[in-house]
Fold this protein.
Amino acid sequence: MSGWQGTPFKVEVKSGEVKAFCMCGLSKSGPFCDGSHKGSGEKPEVIKFDADRSIMVCGCRQSKRRPLCDGSHNSL
Ligand code: FES
């Protein structure tokens, strides 16, 4: 997966898995943190998942629930 897109990313997560989601918008591996935030004052949102599931992760960077999608891409 590379870069950002105007629609959400469907991400499969497993119980016990830890993922770091980009919150600065600079990652070239959106929606995941690639370390590009260093020096920006921003930090990734690190989430440990407690169950296997599919999640919709914001790709447009407009969601108020980032890193999760809130449907904001529908109004862009
Ligand atoms: S690259 Fe954006 S938070 Fe790490």
About this structure: The chain is about 0% helix and 25% strand.
